[in-house]
Amino acid sequence: MTDEYSQRSNFVFAPPENNPGAWQASLEMFRDALQRAFPGAFLETTVSSLRSVPVLDFEIEAAPGVFVAGTAAMPAPDYAHITLIDVTVGEAALFAQWLRDSFVPSPASVRFLSSFVMENGVETPSALPATGSASEIEALFRHHLASAGIE
Fold it and tell me: Are 89 and 5 in contact, with CB atoms under 8 Å apart?
């Protein structure tokens, strides 16, 4: 996927607010899913300095030559979030499609927010659509950034 839109941001993915346990995931489950989907992934479990909970730092090759790095925290069945670090909308879209289609139990159970939008005062996550290609998700992410005045 070619991404001419090169603005980079952090993207956070989480379960629905009204059902925080929707993913029913653990770090081990997420680690195993990444290993199966992305052979050669860098995976390291550490402890978050902010919350003193285990986190999984990862870097995957989401598509040939497209690397995505992030951190996942899933310390309890009713708490989970995954943060992608310094990614373009195209890179985030590739990961989001995999997360929705291959990891979470329901495709309608992923919310997202970007650091740029949060910095502009918007703190309400948006729902990832239950269907659609990475290109369609990329367009949604571009609109998300544009709605906060980010070009």
Answer: yes
